Amino acid sequence: MSPILRLLATGLVACATIPSAHAQNDRMTPIAIPAQPDAITLNTGELPNAPVRESWHSQYGSVFARNVTVATLTPFLPDPAKATGSAVIVAPGGGFRTLSMQNEGWDVARALAARGVAAFVLKYRLNQTPAGMPAFEQSMAQMFAGAARPQRPSPMQQIAQIGPQIADARAAFALVRSRAREWRVDPQRIGMVGFSAGAMLTMATTVAGQDAKPAFIGNVYGPLSAMDAPADAPPMFVALAADDPLFGSGNFGLIESWRAAKRPVEFHLYEQGGHGFGMYQKTTTSTGWFDAFARWMDMHGYLKPAAASATGN
Question: Key word Cytoplasm present in the record (predicted)?
Fold first, then answer.
């Protein structure tokens, strides 16, 4: 396997910009499924025809899940004294074959909770991969090699292929709304942020999620192909590195789709950062994406309690 494909195969990074702290920890190492005492099983059932059971591995000082057959949602709630009433469903990425649960899930959720935002990490069901690690790495390399080709499925074709994941996202929104009072969440102020494949799921939930209706969305290093923006499309935040080997050389039609529909959109194109920078601390300015996202949320009133936001205070 070539070095670049080996990096792509992680579903985490796609160029040699790994933080130095993780440079000696780049091998995939199987680990026991971690305890997830706060995880709530969603009501979407078990993935059909999925004989390979869930497993986890570590790499780059982070942890990943794969072969997820039952979806869960894990709450990260803010200090009640700081709670704003806003909430975010967090969708990690990994090509719908693995999930970057720490770098693009738990760490993002903790950072949101520190800002007073209730965060919920969605461990959605995944396409099956080989049980063994070497075969899994090879399958990921083949997938990402195909993803880098110029001809990719259209956004709507991709959406048609991820029905189970959209169902999981809808169930996540429904669960948060059903327990909104308990979790101090305003049902009208629930957004969604996704990374790579999780960004694709975020867009799919926005345009095909029926009752999900995110109040605002974040698309972090997802594909930016043009798609029809709903007339009531939510405000959208987009972050991408220009040297992203998967999506950095494509067009930015999605941005223009939102602009053509006269819907709010903010786009950060970082010079460097690769694919999968997430919450890793790097020397590249892409590390600042979360602070920019938080400022954008604040601009739209989501870091203030609902009453203060409505009065402009």
Answer: no
- Using CB atoms within 10 A of its CB, is residue 286 exposed (0-12), middle (13-18) or buried (19+)? buried
CATH number, domain 3-311: 3.40.50.1820
Angle between helices 163-178 and 197-208 (to 10 degrees): 70
Instruction: State the amino acid at position 31 in one-letter form.
Output: I
Rounded Cα–Cα distance for residues 41 and 301 (Å) = 31
Domain boundaries, the chain: 3-311
Q: Which residues pair with 278 in a beta bridge?
A: none
Tokens representing residue 276 in the block: 């999968």
Q: What is the DSSP string of the chain?
A: --HHHHHHTTTS-SSS---GGGTT--S-EEEPPPP-TT-EEEEEEEPTT--SPPEEEEETTEEEEES--EEEEEEEPPPTTT--S-EEEEE--STTTEE-TIIIIIHHHHHHHHTT-EEEEEE-------SSHHHHHHHHHHHHHHHTSS----HHHHHHT-HHHHHHHHHHHHHHHHTHHHHT--TT-EEEEEETHHHHHHHHHHHH-TT---SSEEEES------PPPTTPPPEEEEEETT-TTTTTS--HHHHHHHHTT--EEEEEESS--S--TT---SSGGGGHHHHHHHHHHHTTTTS-HHHHHHT-
| Average pLDDT of every residue of the chain | 89
In this prediction, residue 5 carries a pLDDT of: 31
Q: Which amino acid is at 210?
A: Q
Statement: residue 49 has pLDDT above 90: yes
Q: Give pLDDT tens digits for 118-130.
A: 999 999 999 999 9
Model pLDDT, residue 199: 98
Distance CA 223, CA 214 (A): 19
pLDDT of residue 155: 77
**Rounded to an integer, what distance in angstroms lies between the CA atom of residue 239 and that of residue 227?**
17
What is the per-residue pLDDT for 147? 58
Residues 6+ positions from 150 with CB-CB distance below 8 Å:
none
